[in-house]
Amino acid sequence: MFITLEGPEGSGKTSHIPPLVEFLRERGYHVFPTREPGGTSIGEQIRAVIHDLKNAEMHPRTETLLYQAARAQIVEEVIRPRLERGEIVLSDRYFDSTIAYQGYGHGQELEQVRQLVHYATGGLTPDLTILLDLDVETGLQRKVRQQEWNRLDAYTVEFHRRVRAGYLELVRQEPGRWRVVDASRAWNSVQEDLRSLLLEALRR
Ligand SMILES: Nc1ncnc2c1ncn2[C@@H]1O[C@H](COP(=O)(O)OP(=O)(O)O)[C@@H](O)[C@H]1O
Ligand SMILES: [Mg+2]
């Protein structure tokens, strides 16, 4: 089973994954957490280039392609082999981030972006994708407090609003794959919802 967490900056993806993994492992599931961009040696090098605040001149197409390069590597090196061994892979972001950020956010032609994403993943689609939905201001304020500010966080508030609207549009287009969790609530409540959703999906 391949499960992905999506959502805007500061929605809680990275902080929720370790306790979710521990929770599932205690129940006997083989879970492997990973993150995008990165998750492999090559991917982490690409991540550094994408996130570096010094790379302000990066064109949206360059950005889009760098994400796909990192993604192709993690799919073949990590995700596909583990899924074939019957493990659960839980990823902090995956291709929906590209549709939301590089597609809706930058306003690039969505069908072209989808084709690129399909090329990068070889068509590997998550079984379940959870959107941690949060308003842009709250998310960015959480990020500022965390002092983990990267080149994408620094895009305009309007950009981040398009990203959030893009995510909600993706949910509308493919309701069978998505679940939405209100990430504006207390961290513990969000974690509880995520645990229930994962158990429900794994028992299916
Ligand atoms: N529900 C929440 N309430 C308050 N703070 C939160 C909540 N969820 C996450 N945070 C905090 O917000 C910051 C960003 O969370 P993080 O998990 O890194 O988000 P993301 O990976 O989605 O950008 C962290 O400092 C985290 O502890
Ligand atoms: Mg994160």
What does this structure look like?
With 204 residues, this protein is an alpha/beta fold. It has one domain (2-203): 3-Layer(aba) Sandwich (Rossmann fold), CATH 3.40.50.300. Helix content is 58%, strand content 13%. The protein has eight helices and five strands. It has helices at 13-26, 41-51, 60-84, 95-105, 110-121, 136-146, 157-173, 187-203; strands spanning 2-6, 31-35, 88-92, 128-133, 178-182. A five-stranded parallel beta sheet has the order 2-3-1-4-5, sandwiched between helices. The protein is globular. Residues 7, 9-15, 142-143, 146, 183, 186-187, 190 line the site of adenosine-5'-diphosphate.
Total strand segments: 5
Low-pLDDT segments, ≥5 res: none
Distance between the termini: 11 Å
CATH class: Alpha Beta
Total number of helical segments?
Answer: 8
The dominant shape is globular
Helix content: 55-70%
- Estimate the mean pLDDT confidence: 96
Bound molecules: adenosine-5'-diphosphate, magnesium ion
* Strand/helix succession: EHEHHEHHEHHEH
Largest sheet: spatial strand order:
2-3-1-4-5
Strand residues, percent: 5-15%
Assembly type: single chain
Tell me about the biggest sheet? Answer: 5 strands, parallel
Q: Provide the structure class.
A: alpha/beta
What's the CATH H-level homologous superfamily?
A: P-loop containing nucleotide triphosphate hydrolases
The name of the CATH architecture is 3-Layer(aba) Sandwich
